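User: Structure tokens for both sequences below?

Assistant:
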Amino acid sequence: MNGSPRKTWACLLLLAATLAWGAGCSKSTPTDDIVAIVGKHEIRTAEFQAWMRRRGVGDSMVQKESLLEELVNHHAAVQRAVALGLDRDPQLQLAWENQLVNAVRKREVESGLSNAVPTAEQVQAAYDAQRASYSEPAMRRGAILFRELAPKATDTRRDEARKRIEEARTKALEAAADPTQVRGFGALAVEYSEDPVTRYKGGDVGWIIEGRGDNRFDPAVLKALFALKQTNEVSEVIETPAGLYVVKLLEVRPGRVKPLESVRGAIAHSLQVEQRRAFESNWSAGLRTDLRVERRTNVLARITPPARPSPTSTESAEPPAIR
């Protein structure tokens, strides 16, 4: 049996029809609603009406006769398949079992979850319990001017570097008084800074989170940035092992906790997922309440994986596992 969807569904219909056929033969029922007899199977009014709904057949006699022929052929094929033993095919039986599992899950699990909507009180409680995870830390955006100094730089080189950075700082202080000042240090970064990443962006280093290190800069530089009191304020010259810095505060974003309304949807979804897992876990456990379950690990240990089928094998692919 190959694994094509069409053949799988055909097999499922075969097994379903076989079960219905067997059930119909085992009962003694009135015969006045028998539409046709196919071998050992009686096609009764209820079955024919179900096929009418499925096919969209109306009260036309021509249509009903055509449908009856289809149904007769169907049951003739089912009985031929049973005679050939196809109803005992392991793959077909497994597919049918999977359909039964899906049906009972839909009836008992999905219906139970359809109304499982977290209440406002549950959402509020989850928000309060996880408030720290909804907190946004304080951040600052700054700009830098940088003059590089090698560890073994001569005094003359150090004096020249300090003179240049002091000159840049003086111009920055003058420019800071002008509210129309361009981004960061503006052209001063191009003229004075030796930091290749920020030089052509006005020295802008982007947002830096308070209390977290930034491996781009010496801790002294970060400390100076967070010590500035107001935007456009310029620091003193900061000396680090890498060189000399001047820092400017561009923007401040205070720490805050996200309001409940902005995260309500995410919290509700998370609670629904948790409720679903709990419901399914309890449902799975309840399946075994009245059943004897015995595990034989000694037999389990002896089982080895089956050989893989050859590429030319017509054996159908293994159906997905039922969880």
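Moving on to the next sequence.
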Amino acid sequence: MNSKSERSEAAETIQTILSGIVPVGLTIAWPTNKVEPGSGDRRTRIMGDTGFDLAKLKEWDPGDRVDGKASAKTGWRETLAALYEEPRDLTVWTIADNSPALIFGTQNMTERTLAATLLGRILGAASRDDRAGVITYDEQHLQQILPPKSASSQLLPALYSYLDPDESSFINNESSVSGLQQALLRLPLTERCLVFVISTFHNLTAEELQSLTTVGHVHDLVCLIIGDVRERELPEGFGLRELKDLRTGRSTTVWLSKRRRAQWAAEFDSERKRLRHSLGDAGAAVEEFNTSDGDEGIDLKLVPVLTGVRYQE
């Protein structure tokens, strides 16, 4: 069981997350919530041959669904909402990495707090009729599965299970595949869902990428990459410095210099570019978040994603 101080810290973090939630709504880009659509299923909030015509654009009010594309055309100087005929509910799954290494963070928060903030923003953005499921995992294990239910009623349990988990309830099943693969295998194949995966995506394997590709063929897949500036930038100074990888526990010694810092950053940028292209090829939209992002920075990148402005590499 977690200590009293850990539970108190988790409760304080959750209150901070809740205070920053804006219910902008979740926009999807397919006609129904089934892989093979039938009559009467939920339809998209985008224009086209969906049967739901655009009624009008209006200035966004709390509780409205933000029209990301219309707002983007104004350079986000105006936040607009589009009014359509009301479609049926959506099922959204959030798969969140909860590996021990996410305690890392040198800026405003740890990577775990950043992941929890994104989780809270996603669930808080959903409409009252939308259903939300949450899966957490670490490098080798599936941790917890919260089956879909009303997003509003899922919000607090999901945040507490992520930030203050009861390890005695972990699934912790022995498997030959990674925790991420196990989580992806738990997604439904008969219902099309909006799926968010929150992770650092460090050392993504070919097998994990194939699992993501399978999910991307069925669902609307969005990968949210979290990280810290120190992963790209070496510390200031000159001379030898020992760096420890919290994921593997291995240490490496680097020579700090202006040239080495530039080389380190260039190698990171090259690897990140390859990762984004790989995720895009898997059918995922991709966005990056950093522990230095404040509420405004997170919303600037996340709100367009939630409201349907999603890009693949």
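User: Anything stand out in the second?

Assistant: Helices lie at 4-19, 68-73, 111-125, 151-163, 179-185, 206-218, 258-281, 295-306.
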